[in-house]
Design brief:
Layout (H helix, E strand, L loop, with lengths): L1 H19 L8 E8 L1 H4 L2 E2 L14 H8 L8 H23 L4 H26 L7 E7 L2 E6 L10 E2 L2 H11 L4 E7 L21 H4 L4 H7 L2 H14 L2 H4 L9 E9 L8 H5 L1 H15 L7 E5 L6 H5 L2 H10 L8 E5 L6 H8 L6 H7 L11 H21 L2
Parallel strand pairs: 1-6, 1-7, 3-6, 7-8, 8-9
Antiparallel strand pairs: 2-5, 3-4
Length: 400
Amino acid sequence: MKKLLTVLVLLGMVCTVGAKAPKQNSKKLKVFILAGQSNMVGHSRGHTIATLFNPDGAKDKQLTQLVFKKDAKISKAILDAQLVRARKGDVLMKKIKTMPDGAAKSAAEAELSKAKEIQEAYKKSVVDSLVDSDRVYINSIADRNVRSGKLSMGYGGGTDQIGPEYSFGLSMAEKIDGPILLIKVSWGGRSLNYNFRPPSAGEYQLDEKQKASDKVAEIKKNAGNDYRTMNEVVHNVLANLKENHPAYDPKAGYEISGFLWFQGFNDQFSDAFRNNYKDNMIAFIKDVRKEYKVPNMPFIIGVLGTSQTEEKVAANAVSVAQREAAKAPEFKDNVLAVESYTQYAQDSLKVYNSGWTKHQLEWDTVGSDRPYHYLGSGKFLVRFGDAMADAMVELISKQK
């Protein structure tokens, strides 16, 4: 009996010790910085992600499994049925405009109103079917949409929109171990030559109009302001990691694992901005690495592809400069340029080009913005974020 009691006491001690010391996450927090202008902000409404079920790319089926819950009540059949209803609604909308007032018109208007209600319910069901992440958290500035928490739909330009952060984070969670934190700093209408101008690019050169302005001192002072603000935001988050990711373990620490840059539109419209883009991009990468003391920080440049086709993108001076910067000899194996035009949603483009104002309900199903925002296509941004994740993992693997 004494031996039995001794064994039971020892077992109790083991259980008690185990209860007092639960196993903590011993993996470093992986931090990724995302920055740029409006297409990093993200202007794709969440419901347009469902167009992935209408695949025109090899990975689209895989991506539906990445972003939709396993029990999601959305499928190709449901998307197709909604598109049929939307097209009928557009025909009805056009018909109503030519109908005289009366009972027939009132009945048609009631039918259209019901079609719109069904469309809104469909859109809500798509958004409700999108996954949230338990491993990936985000602290995000996307124009005026400033928020933080678990990665989910809603960290784009509005709480119903996404940027590339959504699928990038979800994809990275499938590719690497441990907790992940995204820090996104983005504003629309920004240039690299002026707004994000890095310190080592040298003093900003005013154009003739600016020289003649009475705000010369202010213009010079504000050059590079977004670069400085970006770093202030990132450092503030890094100083409060436990507040930004509950799985952060101070003993394990953190590492800045990579940087994503998606920008370029505003640098297209000035010779100085275009011609200096390559050098500015190289300076930006070097300065960021120096700022965070990560000499070979994996860096992804999202190549501007709003002109849609291979030929037009190849003729765009900013896109060419982005590609050339990535190929700089000093960036071998730690910088990659990722094309965005190859991820364009061709089905959304077809509807847009057919005259979206004449196909409003159909357009509302597949797109939500203009070509300079990649048509506000969720399909595009999910594809592109995933492509950036693939490239990031490739670079990370080369650092070991």
